[in-house]
Amino acid sequence: MIFVAVGSLYLSSFQADLLKTLVRAGKMLLDHGAVIESVESLGFRDLPYKRITKQTREPVYSSNFFLFRTHMSVEARKTTKSIFTHDLDMVHVAVVPVTTPAPEKCNLEEILKPPAKRQSVKDLREGQKMGHFTRQLIYKRTEREWRSIPKSYPIAPQRP
Fold first, then answer.
1. What is the pLDDT of residues 53-69, one digit of tens each?
2. GO MF terms on file (predicted)?
3. Same domain, 80 and 56
4. Per-residue b/e over 46-63, b at no fewer than 16 CB within 10 Å?
5. In sequence order, what are the residues at sequence separation of 6 or more whose Cβ sits closer than 8 angstroms to the Cβ of residue 99?
């Protein structure tokens, strides 16, 4: 079963027709083996672009949006989408499969460590990329440090 959000349905402005269309859509989803988790009304909104009604061929600029959160198989999703797209009361139907994110593991003790001792910071430092300018600065600094260290030169033997 795949979690699917069916939304963006244009329905007529009459409340009785709206209710009949929603009931018909819900029954059709249930008949095809879908489990309806929730039904949300997203309100009466403007469409992103002009649509044409199927019965009267008139342009539609705004509509009622509804979101059906359902669980259904892939085959049921294909058949319900084709049935919804041929329904005369619906201008646009979008079926969107939704994946649930995996729960993240808590790593509070790792976060509370100082940055120098964290494994994630060590991995970042090992795999970091350095630009040419940064590399030159590091080279010049180490060169200056090397020159500032007093060197002991070998003492030449005395001449006879």
1. 888 888 888 888 888 88
2. rRNA binding; structural constituent of ribosome
3. yes
4. ebeeebebeeeeeeeeeb
5. 3
Residue 38 within a domain: yes
Best CA proximity match to 29, nearest among 90, 98, 80: 80
Instruction: Please list, in sequence order, all residues whose beta carbon lies within 8 angstroms of the beta carbon of residue 127, skipping any fewer than 6 positions away.
Output: none
Supply the pLDDT for residue 107.
Answer: 85
- Identity of the amino acid at 8: S
Residue 154 lies in a domain: no
Contacts of 126 (CB under 8 A, 6+ apart): none
User: Does 61 lie in the same domain as 131?
Assistant: no
Q: Give CA separation, 26 vs 13, 41, 86, 94, in Å.
A: 19, 14, 16, 15
How many domains does the chain divide into? 2
- From 92, 96, 88, select the one nearest 64 (Cα to Cα): 92
Instruction: Name the pTM for this structure.
Output: 0.56
What residue type is 51 in one-letter code?
R
